[in-house]
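Margin note: ligand = beta-D-fucopyranose.
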Amino acid sequence: MTAVRTETKAEPAAATSFPPGFVWGAATAAYQVEGAAAEDGRTPSIWDTFSHTPGKVRNGDTGDIAADHYHRYRDDVALMKDLGLGAYRFSISWSRVQPTGRGPAVERGLDFYRRLTDELLEAGITPVATLYHWDLPQELEDAGGWPQRDTAHRFADYAEIMGRALGDRVGLWTTLNEPWCSAFLGYGSGVHAPGRTDPAATLRAAHHLNLGHGLAVGALRANLPASAQTSITLNLHQVRPLTDSPEDAEAARRIDAVGNRVFTGPVLDGVYPDDLMADTAHLVDWAELVHDGDLAEISRPIDVLGVNYYAPTVVSAGDGTGTKNDGHGASDHSPWTGSDHVDFHLANDQLTAMNWAIDPDGLYTLLTDLAASHPQLPLMVTENGAAFDDYVSPEGLVNDPQRIAYLHAHLEAVRRAVADGADVRGYFLWSLLDNFEWSYGYSKRFGAVYVDYSTQRRIPKESAHWYAGVIRRNALPAAGQE
Ligand code: FCB
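Resulting structure:
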């Protein structure tokens, strides 16, 4: 496949360099870092309810305090500045801004994001805001949640509020983070909030997330300066058949449909794929679900596509007993709605602490495939990183060579994709800080910066210093210069 170059893409200078102006960032999400769960008018989101439900999150951990970013954001921005970050991708807690998910905004909630973005701008760091990183206001879930069409309209109202409040200082907006997880893990396998296990509700949620995205792009556009950019972040599965048998190819087709094209189809191309609708026709009446005009709304142009990548997805025809290796947590209910007979496999035995296979080629393939299928669409790696069992040495250091190797290999994959024509504009490491890793609680550490949760002390890991060097040079270290 030959990827097509876009006019704006610059030529990389040397074998280890990134294009001039390449955006170097780190990412977090509101519920995972903020804490202050009941302060300044914030009400519970579905993740507050879920994490407070016994048995849902490892060790009974909750995001009540998390990394206390709500109170420590100034120090955290100073840390970002020390590392030389060019951009910070954070998310906004909807129920901090609109406690019931509807109606007027709470100024105290908005003020936090005004203070945070001001602090970033003063430090010379570009704020990148995500409107929704999985934390639906509980009141909206009580009214039916994402399976309910009205939620998409509530989301558009919230987008309008945020566009008005921060449009003068935030230039890049992401509507949804990984709607696949919201729909398929939240309403399908139930390993994420709100913990429902209903295949029809899952597909309805997916469509209303798509609709919410489109409506939100419209609401943002109407309230943002023309220079502002809009995007959505998808966790596209880099799907590979286990063997070249026709049965495994069919399994790969099905998982690509229900894992990827359920979003890329309507958002990028304005259609739901026929094969997806056929695979799931026994679960949902698509003609009833998708109203006239929805697809035009959903496919409003975006400026950038955010791509999150951690590991590839290897599949074979099976009976669904091999679902545990899909990387999305254990459940008796498959998240692969309509294709729950497919089995999943690890791509290799080089695993992170999440038991995800380390496979940088998957990122290269994802980016170059997107460049080939959508050559005019700029891309941004909005999350990539790894959890390992980090600890503080007696000298007070956190030495994490495995994370450095992971980042190096994946950044090399990004650089190669750029060299081969993919228009990748930036890279955000997941995560700036160790944080609340959803159903794994605090047991998994993804941060470039270690957080001692008993004191909230921050200790930049060796990988943070390594990443700072990459940013400074806009290049990877050459061999022998690590
Ligand atoms: C992604 C999520 C992010 C984090 C990483 C490890 O799916 O967007 O919040 O949990 O995985």
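The longest helix spans residues 199-223.
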